[in-house]
Sequence to fold (512 residues):
Amino acid sequence: LPKPLQTVCAQVPFGTCICGRAAMSGKIEFADRVEVHHDNKYKGIPPHGHYCIPLLSAGKVLGVINIYLTKGHIRDERETEFLGAVADVLVGIVQRKRAEERLKLSLSELEAVCIIDRHIIQNLELSALLRFIVTRAKELTGSDVAFFGFIEDNVISYRTFRGIRTKAFKELELEKDRGVGWFACIDRYPVIVNDYYTDTRLVDPPYDIVKKEGLKSFLALPFMSAKDEPLGILYVANRKDVKFTEEQSTMLYTFAEQSALAVEHARLFEETKRAYEKLKSLDELKSDVISNVSHELRTPITIAGSAIELARLEKDPRERNKFLALALKSLVRQNVIVENLIEAASLERGMKAFRPSAIDLRPIIDEVFSEFKPVFTKEKIGVAINLEEDLPDVSADPEQLKHALRTLVNNAIKFNKIGGRLTCTAKAKDDMVEVCISDTGIGIPGDKFTKIFDRLYQLDSSTKRTYGGIGMGLSIAKEIIEVHGGKITVESEVGKGSRFCFTIPIFKKGGD
Fold:
């Protein structure tokens, strides 16, 4: 068969040209030359004729045998009888082969179910299970790509991929009712889309991203929980002009039903594991707190008790005042520790009420710095407060904001040196106000910048012995600032001091 004819005759519409007429009429069609019944033509077509014999089964056309003849061939009834008999034999062969294919698909389906059942027992690690499901779905359908997305808060977020090339596709998130996946989720049944760009059933599909990936046909299968709630969507797709079949859909649907059960089990296991790790962490945290706090609470009480006893016995007023000042300092330190413990417990249990309102930062900063005035005087720390003029109000809970500010000022004093300096600045920055506390103290190594915000973290044992504290202040301050919608950062150089900055949203009338 000449190559041009292979192209022109590769696909013939039903009822068009000789073979299309045979399919429509269910009868043998004959032509002795190109000029008769030829709808598909091209320049330079060689002379020829046709016998086109339909393959019929119970009145249904399965296909057409197309025989090419030399031009001028005369129709012979003996030939048509012979070709009709051949067609009947071929019908039997086609039906048997199709039955074998269906059986093969059924066996593949059974095999897929058995394999996924084994994975339910053997593998409760969610990521590994999803990789297996996506890989297996791709293999079973011979697709170019396969991927899986979880449904959370009415959004499909893709998580596991096979064959996907572009970053934009991997980062794609689809809101409710958009694309093939939601269509399958609503129907709770597989959806075949063999031409993504012309299928009118799809609502607001992401054409550009799909086009960049080069995908054309899709088969989407919903993953439903035991309570018939959507867990996610499994997709297979092709870049080639290859259509998905109902047989593939049925096979993969059985596979998806079993897979959904496995995914739900693995997800529950993962959530249980996370809860256990959190409980274990909290148990360890409790032990550390008890050990650390018992020491830190005893120390100031011991110092204060000893200082008061010495003051009681001391006759010199100046020496007596020194002992009383030492006792006061120890009790202030103990008060800070107790406040941090109460704040940490409230935040952990979600009991802390967050009541933001329009707050002027100036009186807040003045109040906190006034509380530490006796300490500034005793430690001979120079203080500078530089607040931007016309500083806008912020949206904050005043008591929580004071607690975070006290923590940063207390740290700046504790890790400063006698005769050092402490500076507070505040300025508007975009839609936030940035507050910074700087000191001239011991500084913090760069590799500790993130760790200092962890619960109970101390820079090292020597720092712990020298400066005290239970290592909870900064972690609580960070939580408070983040609850307000801000961020806390640190800049520091060992031996030269540190600068802690936090941001708080500017109050907007009529806003939150």
